[in-house]
Queue: 3 jobs
Job 1
Amino acid sequence: MAGQVRVSIDAVGTMVAATVTDVGLAADGFVRGDRVAFSPALADNPVVDVGTLIGIPKNVGDRQAADLLAPGLLARAMITQVRPFIRGQRIAVEIGNSTLRQVVSAWVRAMEGELVDDVAAADVVYTEEDRRLAAVEASHRQGRIQEAATEVFQAIRAGVFDGVRVPRRDADRVAA
C-alpha cells in the first residue's frame, strides 16, 4: 500500500467522494479522516493511489463534490483557457450534457457574462468542441488539478452552482 490510501466511499456522481480510512507508507499529504474525490473508474477498489486524489475542503458536501467537481473542472477550463470571455459579453451555451451546460451557464452569470439563447447574437459560443478541448486541457494539468479544483470548490461554496439540478442516481452510497 505504498503511496496509497484505503477509502470508504460516501457519494458517487461524476466523481467519487470518499473518506480516507487508512494511509499507506509514502502516502504524503493525506491522513485518516480526510475527505477526497477521485475518478469513478477507480471506485471498484478501496485502495487508491494518492496521485489520483483531490482533497475536498470543509464546507463542501460529499454530494456537491461528487456531482459538481468534474463538470466544474471542465467548465473552468472552457471559460478560462479554451475560450475566455470578458465581463458583459453575450454568451451562448450549446452543450448537450445538461449538468455541464448548467454549470457553464452558472459560472458565466457569476463572472458577469450575459447569457443569450440566440447563437447569432452571441459574442462567445460554448460548444461540444469546446468541451472536448477543455477535457484535453484539464488532462494536461495533472500537477495543477488541485489548484483548478480549488477554484471549483470556491465557486461551490460561493453558491455559484446552487441552481444546478443534477440527475439523481439509484444509489448515493456504494460499498468499496
Job 2
Amino acid sequence: MKSKLLKLDAPYQVIYAGGLVGRHIATMVTWTEDEQGEMMDTVSYPVIDQGEEYPAGKMVVADLDDCRVLCPKEGATNLGWVMKIIEYDYQQLDPAGPEYILERMRLLGCTIKMPVEKDEKTGEELPCLDYTITLFITPLSASWEEPRYYRVKSNRFNGFYFEAEGTADEIYNDLHYQLSCYKGFFHDEVSRIEFMTHDMELEDVIEKLNKRQEY
C-alpha cells in the first residue's frame, strides 16, 4: 500500500465527511500497484480542519466520493442545499444530526441564504418567515399491533428536512427536537414551522407539534 498527501490551497470548501463537518484542507490518496507498477485500488480520504477547539489535520476514514460539499470556497450556501446534506446525513448508519451540522457550519463561518417570497401586492421579494412541512408517514407494523411503529420523512423542498422512526411518542420527541434545533439556529429568520400530512396517521402528534409553537 502506498500513499501521498495532497495539500489544498485556501480558501477551502467546508464538507460533510463521515459524519464530521470541517474545512477540506488536504486529501490522502492511497493505492496499490500491480507487477508492472500501475496504480490499482485507489482510494482518497479527506483531511479536515474542524475549526474552533479541534486541531487541524484529522484524516476521515470515508471515501471522498461519499463526502458532500456544504459550503463552497466563498463560504456561503443556501437553505435548500443544507437540507439536502441533512437528508443525506439521515441516510447514514450513525447520523450526526442537524444540531451538530448547523452549529459546526456557524463556527466555520458559513452563511446560509434563506428563501424569499414575493409580496402579492407590491411584488417585492421578502424573506420567507413561515414554512409548512408535509410529512410522509409509513406504518412499520400491522394495525392491530401495539405500540405501532412508524417511519416519518418530510420533503426538503418545503424548506426544512425532518426524519424520525419509532412509536408515536418517539416520533413526537424526535420531531420536536429537530424543530427546536432549526428554530434555535434560525431564530431571526423563521417565525413558524407548521406540520401537515395527507396520510391518516399521527394526527395527534402533528396537532401537538403545531400547538406547542403557539406558546
Job 3
Amino acid sequence: MMLLAQSDRPFATEVWLTPLILLPGVALLIVSTSARFGQLHADFHQIIEHPNAHAKIISRNLLRRSELFRDALASLYVSVGLFSMGSLVGAFVDFFWPTSVWFVGAFTIAGIGCVVFAAAQLFRESLICLAVIKEHSDAVSNNSKHDV
C-alpha cells in the first residue's frame, strides 16, 4: 500500500507543475500583444497630428483593434492568474490531500480557455488590420491617380 502511494506522488507533482510550464508561452503572447497595442497609440497620434480624408475610417478601425487587444490582454492576464492559482492550489492540495489533484485540472482548463479566447481576439484583430492596410492601399492609389 505504501508503494502505491509513493508511485502516485510524481504524477501528482507533475499535475500541479503543468500550469507553470504553460506560463512562458502566455508571457510571450502578452509581450507581443502589448507591443502591438502600444503601436496603436502611436498610430492614433499620427492621425491626430496629420489628419487626412480617411482619418475617420482609420480611427474607427484602430478603436476596434484596440478593443480586441484589450480583451485579448485581459484574457491572457486572467489565464496567468488561473495557471498560477492552479499550481499554488495544486501544491497545497498535493501536500495535504495527494489524491485530490483535480483542483489543478479545473484551473488549468479555465486558463487554457482564456488563452483560446485571447487567440480568437487576436485573430479577429488581424482581420481588421488587413482591412486597414487595404484602406491605406486604396487611399494611396486614389491619391496617385489625382497627382497624375
